[in-house]
Design a protein that fits this description.
By secondary structure, this protein is mostly beta strands. It contains five helices and 22 strands. The chain has a six-stranded mixed beta barrel.
Length: 330
Amino acid sequence: MIGGALLVLSSVLMQSGMPSAGQNPMPASLIPSSVMVPFASDRQHIFVSLTVNGTPGMQFLLDSGTTSNILDLHASQMLGLKPEGIQREKDIGLGGGMVAVAEDKDVSVDLEQLPVAHALALVDLHDLQVAYHHRIDGILGFPLLQKYVVVLDFQKQMLTLLPAKGYHYQGEGSVVNLAHKKHSAEISITLSTDTRTHMPTVVDVDTGSDVSLMLFQSYAQKQNLQEMFVSSHGLWAYGLGGYFPVKIGRMPAIVMGRMQTGDQTVFLLQTTPNVLKKKTASGVVGLAYLSNFGKVIFDVPSGQMIFEVKNQDSARATKPALKRQSMLLR
C-alpha cells in the first residue's frame, strides 16, 4: 500500500503491555534471543507467518509505516476474542474514509518462539485484503522496529530479528542515521530533477508501501515540482480507508547516505489526508526501492539504518547502479 496501512490510530485504541489472560508464558530461559524465518514477497509487500494465542499460520503484513501493531477484527473473532467498543473512525489512514476499529486486545504474538507483540489494535482490514489480493490477519508495525534490530535479506527472502542491546554492525553497507525514530523511521535523502539539483529532504522508510518514492503534496508545492508529474486521470492508489488520487513522474537521482540511484519512478499524492498534517516527512520510500538492495537493516534503537548492495563486489562502490523501478497501481 502507498504510505503504509495506518499512520495514526485514534484515541479509542488504548495501549497496554500486560500479558493476555489465559496465556501460559514460556520460561524466560527457553525464549530465543533472535530468530531467522523466510518471508513471502507478494506485489511488493512482505508477509510473515506468526502464531497468535497459540494459533499458528496467521499472516501478518510487515509495515514499518504503521504506528501500532494491528489484529484484523475478523481474525480476532476467529481466535475467540470478543472485540469491545467497536465504532467507525475516519482519517486513520491515507484513504481518509471510515474504518471499523475496536479497543486494543492483549494477545500473545510470536515469531517462531520469539515474542514480538502483545497489545494489538483491532482494525477491520477486509478492504485492505481485497486491494492486496492477499490474506492479512494483522500488521506488524513500527513497534517491532523499536524492540528489535530487523534485518530484511531480499536476496534470500529471509527476515531476522536480533536483540537490540549490544548490536554493532560490522559489514560494508552504507550506514544512514535516522532523522527521526520516535514514531517512524525517517531518513534524509537528496533529490535531483532535470532542472534542479541538491534538494535535501526527509522521508519515511515504509515497508508497507509498494512504491519507490512518493512525495506529499505540500512538499511538491513548496519545491515547485508539480510540472514533473504527468496529469493522469483515473490513477489511484489504496490506503486504509479507501482510494486516493496520485500522479506519476520520474526522479533522475536520489542520494541516500553514500548510495545514489537514478531514474526512479516517483508518485505524487494529490491530497493531504489529516493523518499527514502533523508529519514532518516530505514523502516515503517504499519496498520497490528497498528491494533493490541485498539487505536492509533497521537498527532503530541505535538510530540508524544500513543498506547493503546485492553484488558484494560492488559493496565498496559509492554509487551502485540500481535498476529502474515501476509500479502498477490498483
